[in-house]
Amino acid sequence: MGILDRFSLKGRVALVTAGAGPLFGSSLSQALAEAGATLITASRSLEANQEFAESLKAKGYDAHGMQFDLSDSDSIRKLRRDLIERFGRLDILVNSALTRDGHGGDLKTQTPEIWMKAATGDFSGLFLTCQEFLPDMVKQGRGSIINISSIYGVVSNDPTIYEGTTMLQPPSYTFVKAGMINFTRYIACYYGKQGVRANCISPGGYFNDQPQAFVDNYCHRAPIGRMLNNEDIKGSVVFLASDASEYVTGMNLMVDGGWTAL
Fold first, then answer.
1. Please, what is the average pLDDT of the chain?
2. Residue 262: inside a domain
3. Stretch 27-32: mean pLDDT
4. Domain span including residue 47
């Protein structure tokens, strides 16, 4: 098998939660589809996922939209049942969904209720999604789980980059993303001998029309000198999903323009 063949995802079935989203999700999804995977995206809006799938089908890719709610245990279980019934297997699970309405405010204004809301979706939802699909991967003797964390799961946020804006970085987000990284290591160690790999991708700041002061501050600090864009995340997810990373597990891959190297 040549090196390019090892990056191919032909014959693999991949699920990206929040995979039709305008930020990381759609980029991750398109990358897997371009590499040849049968792609399923799922989030609360069935219509949005089906529309996104149709846009990929129009480009010649095998894509499908499904529905689930990260904060609803029954919904997660139903997604697993429906997906396995329809496609027969799952080879690649990319956990990109985040209960964003559970994160808001700074340390002075956040409440235990806000933290619990974030934990219900982002901790319990991540845990249950992995728990539901892991037996299928173990049964087939192979699988790749890729969790999307953040630079803020590794280092604290830099308050200076928010100067000149009203933006706040909630501490619950950092708390959730850090926990995701070590949970990934747990899965990697516990299931490695059963053929399942688990890795994280920790992206840097994604350009999303933030205030110019924030963009300038961020780009000045980042060694590469710019924010992350749609193309920057694609190679990492294909690498971790494919046989090119067959001996890679428990890793947290920084796609941050050198942010955490400082």
1. 94
2. no
3. 98
4. 3-256
- 203 beta partners: 255
Residue 101's pLDDT band (boundaries 50, 70, 90)? Answer: low
CATH of the domain at 105: 3.40.50.720
Residue at 208 is within a domain: yes
Q: Is the dihedral of CA 194, 240, 32, 22 positive or negative?
A: positive
**pTM, entire model:** 0.96
Rounded Cα gap, residues 70 and 67, in angstroms: 10
Residue 261 falls inside a structural domain: no
Q: Could you tell me if residue 250 is inside a domain?
A: yes
Number of structural domains found in the chain: 1
- In the block, residue with structure tokens 């294909």: 238
